[in-house]
Amino acid sequence: MQSLENHFLIAMPSLQDPFFKHTVTYICEHNEDGAMGLVVNHPIDVTVGELLDKIEIDNDKSTSAAAEQVFAGGPVHTDRGFVLHTPKLGYSSSQELSSNIMITTSKDVLASLTSNARPESFLITLGYAGWERGQLEKELLENSWLVIEADPTIIFNTPPEQRWEKAVQMLGIDATQLSSQAGHA
Predict the structure, then answer these.
(1) pTM of the shown model
(2) What is residue 185's predicted lDDT score, i.e. its pLDDT?
(3) What is the count of structural domains for the chain?
């Protein structure tokens, strides 16, 4: 089994599950026990500043970071927050997922997000997407997803409403040419 860690799952048009329709999911972990990822293109109606207030973390509302949107990372444990961020020295609680992307659930990182100590780029999600053993592989065989190596530019620098199309374009495919019909030769 080839691990899909540090890859995007790009939802095919045929994937009609309301939560995953037209999503780009960053795979954080994938092994023989299953997979875990974060949807990076479904913003919710909560800002970083509002979320930090809700969990009682002091923050500077005057920063652009406080106005950033929070994302629905997946349907599992929607009460848990995850921060994807660019590498930053001193974040001992962050786990490196690639040379350009780290993940954490640590409150000390959350507390820094509206200060000068924050990482250059970050994205907060509530919840995650999870797959049991063999489930993701089955969905791939059913043509539910396209897979491509993750590009931090899409996560951190592309407007959320353009992330699905930009990820598809990375494959050299015109998104309008994707069929919602699956087939096997």
Answers:
(1) 0.92
(2) 47
(3) 1
